Amino acid sequence: MSEPSAKLRNTSAMQLLAQDNYAEALRRGLMQVTLRGRDGRRVAIAPESWVTEFINCSYLAIDTRQDVIARSQAIMAEWGVHLCCARSRFSIGPLEELEEGLSTLWGGRAITFPSVTTTHMSTMPLLPSMDLSARSGNVTFLYDKLAHASMQFLRPVLAAEHRVEVLPHNDLEALEKAAKVAHARGDAVIYVADGVYSMGGVCPIDEVLALAKRAEFSLYIDDAHGTSIYGNHGEGTVLAALGGKLPENVFITFSLSKGFGCNGGGVIVPDREAERRVRTFGMTYAFSAPLDFSVVGAGLASLELHRNGEVKRLQGELRRRVALYDRLVGRELPFSPIRMVEVGDERRAIELGDALKARGHFVSVTFFPIVARGNAMLRICLGVGHTDQDITALVTGLRELGAVA
């Protein structure tokens, strides 16, 4: 395929560069697959074709628990499926109960949204007004290069009023230098990063927190993939490192799907004044609907699992499975349920995904524009729903296909 013309806009050029590989992945049944059945981590990709999936991010398998399903159904029986109304107008008692429960359990003030993306849309443009260090002047947003796409998408919105810079991944030296330069021109600084990165790896959160205190900048951390799998009560990477006390310069987004096992997302802000600003001026809070009521019920059931120690037990099960995978591939990394297999060539990655599927293992094939060109990978999401046999068979397949040594 020829390179796109320089006259094309970035979005059009990206589509031209990606479309052939995407079409090949579709042809091989690796993307946009409709499931015909589900039994835990076993899914039917055709009526008589079952595979073990390593795609879904329900790391603790809370979404299929009968107690969670029952609470979801009970809320719908009382309140219906949905209330099509912006939250600036109406909310329901059980949703307030969920948010207050999260606030008490995790610290700070929790506000929920239909997704983590809509959380960012409401929260990030308001950060300068909520950050005490930023209220008297300009702001520089310093983005980690690998910060999630849902936050990268808002860079042009933020750049309309503030300075936005992108830093090398997890480069604390570059972060400290950029913060000093921003301070020298009179800007407040907000660092934007993930707690657990969606394409593997983690933020060195202890070091970042220490640097933020020393260099006097604020943090906005998307902890969607860290929610529920870190901390005694599933509070995530940042709050676990902070001991459950949220400083005034730290803002954390969380996921109610993934480890939490329901759907939606939210933000934890330091105080009621920041909460008031989000609830008053947050774009998707004012113009979009709340969590579906089935999710609210499931969320209340999951919240109880976070309170009573069950989530802490499940965290141990998850860590054991990740440790098994690492031991089998002979490469131990910082804890994350996401493991990446580097391939490089896009077509080779697609072929490997197809070959694994034929062996009964379904993994994500990731290539441009999800990752850089020529840096295609296999993405493996591990969970407590996987058996030791599932993980052993997957690694055996990867080794026989030459994907791991």
Helix content: 40-55%
Mean pLDDT over the full residue set = 94
Gyration radius, in Å: 22 Å
Number of domains: 2
Task: Let me know the number of strands.
Answer: 14
For the record, give the distance between the C-alpha atoms at the N and C termini, rounded to a whole number. 32 Å
Query: What is the name of the CATH class of the largest domain?
Result: Alpha Beta
Q: For the record, what is the CATH homologous superfamily label of the largest domain?
A: Type I PLP-dependent aspartate aminotransferase-like (Major domain)
In spatial order, strands of the major sheet run 4-10-9-8-7-5-6
Number of helices: 16
Q: Which spans have pLDDT < 50 for at least 5 consecutive residues?
A: none
Order of helices and strands: HEEEHHEHHEHHEHEHEHEEHHHHEHEEEH
What does this structure look like?
This protein has 405 residues and is α/β, with parallel strands linked by helices. It folds into two domains: 10-57 and 337-400, Aspartate Aminotransferase, domain 1 (Alpha-Beta Complex); 65-307, 3-Layer(aba) Sandwich (Aspartate Aminotransferase, domain 2). The chain contains 16 helices and 14 strands. The protein has a seven-stranded mixed sheet with strand order 4-10-9-8-7-5-6, sandwiched between helices. A hairpin with a 2-residue loop joins strand 1 and strand 2. Helix 3 (93-106) packs parallel to helix 13 (293-307) and helix 8 packs parallel to helix 9. The longest helix is centred in the C-terminal third of the chain and has 20 residues, at 310-329. The chain is globular and about 60 Å long. The model has no long low-confidence stretch (mean pLDDT 94).
